[in-house]
Amino acid sequence: MAEKLAPEQRHSFIHNGQKVFEWDQTLEEVNMYITLPPNVPKKLFHSKIDSKHVQVGIKGNPPYLDHDLTSPVKTDCSFWTLEDDVMHITLQKRDKGQTWSSPIVGQGQLDPYTTDLEQRRLMLQRFQEEDLPKELNMKVYFLARLVWIRENFRDCFK
């Protein structure tokens, strides 16, 4: 079993058929990935991260994103970078281990099934980080897996 469970996939927020951003999360942070428009100098892009709000845009224009965050973040540990043609925003969760259903309020919420999978993955990651004996980690993993099987295949157990 891996030391840390990386996000299995990025989630996409699509609006009017266009991808606004992708995101994933770990126990400690939420990562947003915004594809930058071509032919705009990188020095014109900016982002502002407050404890409960994020703003992204091109200097001199209205913000591309200007939304409240789902949960508070640690602003002193949150930052943004430009990598190739993508703005990567790292939001440090104030409450480690909390599962976010979306980075921003009311935009691109995960469906209940995917939220449940995220919660289970983060729970397993937390057990691994707490440095429990490997045997106990495996027992917790298999118990969580059995509960998931029982809940999702109830008809088989009748």
Topology, pairings included?
Elements: E1 11-15, E2 18-25, E3 29-35, E4 45-50, E5 53-58, E6 65-68, E7 73-83, E8 86-93, H1 112-129, H2 134-152
Antiparallel strand pairs: 1-2, 2-3, 3-8, 4-5, 5-6, 7-8
Helix pairs in contact: 1-2
How would you characterize this protein structure?
This protein is α+β, with helices and mostly antiparallel strands. The chain folds into 2 domains: 8-107, Sandwich (Immunoglobulin-like), CATH 2.60.40; 111-158. Helices cover 23% and strands 35% of the residues. It is built from 2 helices and 8 strands. A 5-stranded antiparallel β-sheet has the order 1-2-3-8-7, with no helix packed on it. It is elongated, with a radius of gyration of 18 Å. Residues 16-104 form the CS domain. InterPro entries: CS_dom, HSP20-like_chaperone, NudC_fam. It comes from Forsythia ovata.
Core attributes:
single chain; 158 residues; Immunoglobulin-like; 2 domains; five-stranded antiparallel beta sheet; 2 helices; 8 strands; elongated; HSP20-like chaperones superfamily protein
- Low-confidence runs: none
Shape: elongated
Mean pLDDT: 82
Biggest sheet: strand arrangement:
1-2-3-8-7
> Cα distance, first to last residue?
32 Å
What is the CATH architecture descriptor of the largest domain?
Sandwich
**What's the helix count?**
2
Whole-number tally of structural domains: 2
What is the highest CATH level, the class of the largest domain? Mainly Beta
CATH topology of the largest domain: Immunoglobulin-like
Helical proportion, percent range: 10-25%
Tell me the β content: 25-35%
Number of strands: 8
Report Rg.
Answer: 18 Å
Which oligomeric state applies?
Answer: single chain
Helix-strand makeup class: alpha+beta
> What's the main sheet like?
5 strands, antiparallel
Protein name: HSP20-like chaperones superfamily protein
Organism: Forsythia ovata
Domain CS: 16-104
Pfam families: CS (PF04969)
